[in-house]
Specification:
Blueprint (H helix, E strand, L loop, with lengths): L1 E6 L4 H21 L4 E6 L13 H9 L2 H18 L14 H13 L3 H14 L8 H10 L4 H8 L5 H13 L7 E4 L3 E4 L4 H17 L6
Parallel strand pairs: 1-2
Antiparallel strand pairs: 1-3, 3-4
Helix pairs in contact: 1-3, 1-9, 2-3, 4-5, 4-6, 6-7
């Protein structure tokens, strides 16, 4: 089965949910023998976010109407991440626009199996744990190199407008789907699952979807 996961590398809920879904897909494949092909697609939660190195908590405080509200969300997200085995450090995280990151991730998807997933997790970790600016071309290119992609090619891509139209198309597709929660999973272009769920719930959803998929008639023509 093919699953498309709309996410954003600047959204902690997408990070947590996508990680849980990946693990659920692996478990599902072990249990059924049916592989799940995962592809990440862009859905920017804040397409106008500046990349100026501002602390993320300060930006969140302005957006949510106070530092206390930002801290409350921080506690909620950190707890959910900890359950998933993910470490977060909001104190050092900086605000960033994810558009260039998604250009790089779209290229990584074409580079071969595993590159896109590995790069996405590098960027999530860089953003939410290490305080790196993932809107910065140097940060993006070096993270691409860490997962085995060609550094010079990544640098050239980021200096150009390559994959910009593809990323805009991904975001437009997400908008047409009416996405309001991330991650947003689409399986075989028919079944959808919105928002964050437990790993077990994702496994159950995949089992249900698989049963319907196997029973579905082949497409006409």
């Amino acid at each position: 089965m093919k699953a498309t996961v709309f996410a954003d590398v600047t959204d902690p809920w997408a990070y947590i949910g996508a990680t849980r879904f990946e693990r659920a897909a692996a478990m599902f494949s072990i249990l059924t023998g049916e592989p799940v092909e995962l592809t990440l697609r862009a859905f920017q939660i804040d397409p106008d976010a500046p990349s100026e190195g501002r602390l993320l908590m300060d930006a969140a405080a302005d957006e949510l109407g106070g530092l206390d509200k930002a801290e409350f969300v921080n506690v909620q997200v950190t707890a959910a991440a900890r359950i998933t085995g993910i470490d977060l450090n909001f104190d050092d995280a900086v605000q960033a626009n994810s558009f260039d990151a998604w250009r790089l991730l779209t290229w990584a998807d074409e580079a071969g199996p595993g590159f896109q997933r590995d790069l996405a997790h590098q960027l999530w970790r860089a953003h939410f744990l290490e305080g790196a600016d993932i809107g910065d071309p140097f940060t993006l290119a070096t993270r691409a190199a860490l997962v085995g992609l060609e550094l010079e090619t990544a640098e050239a891509l980021l200096a150009s407008a390559e994959y910009a139209d593809e990323v805009r198309a991904q975001v437009s597709t997400g908008e047409s789907l009416g996405i309001t929660q991330l991650p947003y999973v689409v399986v075989e272009q028919r079944w959808t699952l919105a928002g964050i769920h437990s790993q077990n719930d994702y496994v159950q959803a995949l089992n249900h979807t698989y049963a319907e998929w196997k029973a579905a008639p082949p497409p006409a023509g």
